[in-house]
Amino acid sequence: MYRSSIMSVWVLAMLGLVLLAGCAIEQGHETDFDSLGYQTCTADDQCSFGFCNPGGFCASDCRKNEDCALYGTNMECVTYQCLEVCESNANCTFGICQESGYCLSECQTNEDCAKFGNGLICDNFACIVSDSPDGDAPDGDDSDGDDPDGDTQTETKGSCVPDLDCATHHWLDNCADRPCIDYGYQWSCNEDAVCQDNGEVDLGTGDAGSNAEAYVGVWGMMFNTAQLTTGIPIINEISTVSQHTMLTRVSRDGDKLIIESKACKMFMWNLLEEDDGSSVTYSVEDPTQTVTGGMIIPKAYWDNVSMLRHELENPPKLEAGATWDTTSTFTEVRGAVLEDLLNEDIPKLDLDNPDNVDPRVFDQDMDGYPGMTTQLTGLLNGKIFSTQRWESRLHTATILDENHIKGIVFHDNEQYEIGADQDSLVYPELSFPAFPDENLSFFHMQRMDEDATCEDAIALSKEEDGWLKYTVSIETQPNP
Predict the structure, then answer these.
(1) pLDDT tens across 352-402, in order?
(2) DSSP codes of every residue in 395-423
(3) Model-level pTM?
(4) What is the dihedral sign for C-alpha 62, 67, 71, 76?
(5) Which of 453, 435, 470 is nearest to 244 (CA)?
(6) Which of 453, 463, 450 shows the shortest CA–CA distance to 135?
(7) Can you say how many angstroms the Cα of residue 310 is from the centroid of all Cα atoms in its chain?
(8) How far apart (Å, rounded) are the C-alpha atoms in residues 322 and 402?
(9) For site-directed labelling of 104, which of 142, 208, 217, 301 has its Cα 20 to 30 A away?
């Protein structure tokens, strides 16, 4: 398998749809390379633009540094892509200077976006206009707990939609609170369409001294899912890992634990297997790797997916060495509204009439495109629109101590591409089996303060050697 093919970059567009994936799906017609818009070649002189890449397509920028003169000065050829050389951000005409010494992406932090204008934040390496809660209530009327007359008021900030039809979408009953939980589980959406601080977290009720009581509280979670995509022309298959940083509330209903998790951030890693059988992952930002592209999961995506809910009946004592499996499977449909969540077919592309959009498709991430949108970046760029049904369970969870838990994530997936902003990116025939090494799909949980926020969980995910910091396998990080 040759992993640096331009087709490997293109297929990451499809991989972005499999954010939590597992089962195989096959559909559609045989590949028509002419319709995909790629010029085939066996030598550079056959290309009207670019160079002949190892996959047999005219798609790469360069083969040697001198080829990059066409694109600008001070550039080098890195894995068939021309990149600007830098020592600092001042050397970059676009993007920022990475540790590798090349200019890539627009930003790493919000401060990096200042050179592009005011009011921008860094979202997955791109500077965008901020539409996330910033701590201010509408019209700047953010209460600080006291009004001018000295009466105590409920603190409010941000915005939300109080009348969401959670039942129709098969979302959790508290789906309207989803944007407010960024501030912590004590926040909820009120009838004035703003988030309000309720002062305490609802952790449910049950018998004092029960096994379930010891688990309740707010936790941070790293939730990783690895998947293959097979049946790819030229290269056969490619793999990715989706990293989810979660803010999790563990509450109880008698002797049953209810584990609810809100996605604070999602990130997709490219996954390679080494010759010795081990697995490594790397970011689309790494210019030293052979796959010069990847999939970005926009903030609008993870802000608009359902919260996860897993249940555990009669949990064991919260003691080191104890294990458990959740006793329920969580199922979610994205980008469509179904009457029967489990058995109804999800919308897919009508190959005979691509302009015929299934009426069950809806713009869940509210970006103006059908279904859910992910962004392909690299040698190919474009927006991919999809529908998806996926399910997950927490399996063989092992208690390490009263503040740390780890386990395997079982996940299955059914997904379809229903369109793209470029015809060449529409390809509905692929299959998505689970990655064979189940140790790459796993979760870590770490207890946090009850007033913890999504920002706190993300901070933990960045701590060097932290329990919530991304690692490729459940076996690669020592227990705390």
Answers:
(1) 787 788 999 999 998 889 999 988 776 667 888 999 999 999 999 999 999
(2) EEEEEEETTEEEEEEEEEEEEEEEEESSG
(3) 0.71
(4) positive
(5) 470
(6) 453
(7) 19
(8) 11
(9) 301
